[in-house]
Specification:
Layout lengths: L7 E6 L14 E2 L2 E2 H10 L6 E6 L2 H10 L2 E4 L11 H16 L5 E5 L8 H12 L5 E8 L4 E5 L5 E7 L16 E12 H7 L7 E5 L11 H14 L15 E4 L11 E2 L5 E2 L4 H12 L3 E6 L4 H10 L3 E3 L4 H12 L6 E5 L5 H4 L4 E6 L3 H6 L2 E6 L4 H10 L5
Parallel strand pairs: 1-4, 1-6, 4-5, 7-11, 12-15, 12-17, 15-16, 17-18, 18-19
Antiparallel strand pairs: 2-3, 6-10, 7-10, 8-9, 13-14
Subunit structure: Homotetramer.
EC number: 2.7.7.43
InterPro entries: CMP-NeuNAc_synthase, Cytidylyl_trans, HAD-like_sf, HAD_sf, KdsC_fam, Nucleotide-diphossugar_trans
Length: 402
């Protein structure tokens, strides 16, 4: 008789209170929020039974559910700056077992701040524990650098000198003559669930090292890390089809106006006339979409001459002064003979959420409300009014627009 497969639970801790990069876990890399990237890779794993995101944030919860994860509300006492990841994992594991009536055999701690982690990394640590007898496992990358540390005096103050940590500074052996060091990537950890409960920390018993590609090792802790990740994403994500929409995925693009084609600010002159700023690059992108024979529509709650004037300039139909944008969008799709699941809708605020629930490709611009970014299937790296529509056109058409 075949033994039942072990229950392998992947837990992604993703609280909302990041200080180094505000709303970090919702930041888009390659057009996809970090938390959603992690969920997608966990779900693609061969061994993972289910994926739980532990969070105290509504936007992160929406993104996690949209990517297919179970969401566990994290209590405030384990959601602060001093809370440990272990506490979040144990709480999530308890909640999952209680709601699903099952016992977790192997629990994974997966960090969504490692944007280029792949399902093979997750399977590697899971297999080490579930199939190969390890008590714990972690992802590591081969490391060949010489590590230095500033010397300290007896009072703990830095001195003028530095000391070698993994080497004798008086002897510089060749790389091939040195023992192999490994760098902890911070991406994925696996633990025997029972042993983890007893130990209370992620390393106990036999710990296996699961090698990963050093080129993919990047942890996002500050804005510079995020900028590097966004620059590298096109290289690494070429092997991840479906992350961003292409021309084959959609038949129509529907655009909100304020906050997506503008920066959401309004200038009012002494006569009460309103002025907004738009981006010429967005006009270029819309023209390219029109040449690609996509149906286009501007859909706005505001009834404003500025909206109508911009639509005329872009040669795009407009519906504005609309209270129920979702009903107007549904009717437009019926009139055009376009299936809603073949529509890409771009928005930035909570009044766009009903349309998000209607279409196949809800897209938020950078700087959108957290809940909106969480509900989006993709997020631009460019804010509204600064070329976000041009960026989306580049996704769809598979090329940079110039």
């Amino acid at each position: 008789m075949t033994a039942p497969s072990p229950c392998v639970l992947a837990v992604i801790p993703a609280r909302g209170g990041s200080k180094g990069v505000p709303a970090k876990n919702l930041a888009a890399v390659g057009g996809v929020p970090l938390v959603a990237r992690a969920v997608m890779e966990c779900r693609a794993s061969r061994l993972v039974t289910d994926v739980v995101v532990s969070t105290d944030d509504t936007g992160i919860a929406a993104a996690a559910r949209g990517a297919g994860a179970v969401v566990v509300q994290r209590p405030t006492d384990i959601a602060g700056d001093t809370a440990t990841s272990e506490a979040a994992v144990i709480h999530a594991m308890d909640a999952y077992e209680a709601s699903h009536g099952t016992t977790v055999d192997v629990v994974l701690l997966v960090q969504c701040t490692s944007p280029f982690m792949i399902s093979e990394d997750i399977d590697g640590v899971a297999a080490a524990v579930a199939e190969k007898g390890a008590d714990t496992a972690l992802t590591v990358a081969p490391f060949h650098g010489f590590v230095w540390r500033e010397g300290e005096d007896r009072q703990g103050d830095a001195t003028d000198g530095g000391d070698g940590v993994n080497h004798d500074k008086s002897y510089r052996p060749r790389r091939q003559d040195r023992p192999q060091d490994f760098l902890e990537t911070g991406a994925a950890y696996a633990m025997d669930a029972r042993g983890f409960r007893e130990a209370g920390h992620r390393f106990f018993g036999r710990t296996d090292l699961v090698r990963t590609d050093p080129a993919r090792v990047l942890e996002i802790d500050d804005p510079h890390d995020l900028a590097r990740a966004r620059a590298l994403a096109p290289l690494f994500d070429a092997e991840r089809p479906g992350a961003l929409p292409t021309r084959d995925d959609i038949d129509a693009v529907v655009l909100d106006f304020d906050g997506t084609q503008t920066d959401d600010r309004v200038l009012v002159d002494s006569d009460g006339r309103e002025l907004v700023a738009v981006h010429r690059g967005d006009g270029l992108g819309i023209a390219a979409l029109r040449r690609a024979e996509l149906a286009l529509l501007i859909l706005s709650t505001e009834k404003n001459p500025v909206v109508a004037a911009r639509a005329r300039k872009l040669q795009v139909p407009v519906l504005h002064g609309i209270d129920r944008k979702d009903l107007a969008l549904k009717q437009w799709c019926e009139e055009q003979g376009i299936a809603p699941e073949r529509v890409l809708y771009v928005g930035n605020d909570v009044n766009d959420l009903p349309c998000f629930g209607l279409v196949g490709w809800p897209v938020a611009v950078a700087g959108a409300h957290d809940v909106v970014r969480g509900a989006a299937r993709a997020v631009t790296s460019t804010p509204g009014g600064d070329g976000a529509i041009r960026e989306i056109a580049s996704w769809i058409l598979g090329k940079e627009l110039s």
